[in-house]
Amino acid sequence: MRPPMKHLSFIIPVLNEAARLPALLAALQPLRERGVEIIVADGGSTDGSPELARPGADHVLVAPRGRARQMNAGAAQARGEALLFLHADTELPPEADRLLGAALQGGAHWGRFDVRIEGRSRWLPLVAFMMNRRSRWTGIATGDQAMFVRRELFERLGGFPDQPLMEDIELSQRLLAQGLRPACLRGPVRTSGRRWDERGALRTIVLMWVLRWRYWRGASAQSIWEAYR
């Protein structure tokens, strides 16, 4: 496998993730030792998340609450030539930096990993399978899939749109409009099925499809967010 690409920045938006942050950052330390910059963008946690993050991150910053705003704030601090956006409940494969580097050195401008969802519901493997297949077919990536993009391109497109939901879909559409298909890395990343477990898997599947359909039909991100909540 190729050596890891230099100048990678991983940006993690968090809000009250004290239960998950130590393990997540510990798993990223081998990548950090290979040169990956780790940035935690906190949205105003009240559970001590920023303090827990400092030993395992290169930068911990407080940003206006909202995943898109936090990720944009982290990107503004980053020094990497490529940016990867990692949810606090998602784990990367141990060789993520090398996989990402190989894709970028091979000419990719942006991309995402396949995802595996871990939780109680027996429907989650099917959800992950459909998510990965849909993403390959449409070119749309979601935040659960650990999106990555070259920094120059991200900045040229204005980063993530300032909206409370579907920011990942909107950025994907803007990248596709540039004629750029995503690199689909098999990985996979492992993400928590907590929202499916909490709300019910089938109910969540239906809800997310309805919300994406409404967004595609032109509903505002704010109205989508209110329905999601």
From TrEMBL:
Localization recorded for this chain is:
Cell membrane
GO MF assignments: glycosyltransferase activity
Q: Which Gene3D superfamilies match?
A: Spore Coat Polysaccharide Biosynthesis Protein SpsA, Chain A
Q: In this protein, which residues make up the domain named Glycosyltransferase 2-like?
A: 9-157
Single GO cellular component term: plasma membrane
Q: Which Pfam families match?
A: Glycos_transf_2
The answer on whether this UniProt entry bears the keyword Transferase reads yes
Keyword field contains GTP-binding: no
InterPro entries, from UniProt? Glyco_trans_2-like (IPR001173), Nucleotide-diphossugar_trans (IPR029044), Trfase_2_rSAM/seldom_assoc (IPR026461)
Give the record's keywords alphabetically. Answer: Cell membrane, Glycosyltransferase, Membrane, Transferase
Recorded hits in NCBIfam families, A to Z, give: glyco_like_mftF
Protein name per its UniProtKB record: RSAM/selenodomain-associated transferase 2
Organism, as annotated: Roseateles asaccharophilus
List the lineage, top down: Bacteria, Pseudomonadati, Pseudomonadota, Betaproteobacteria, Burkholderiales
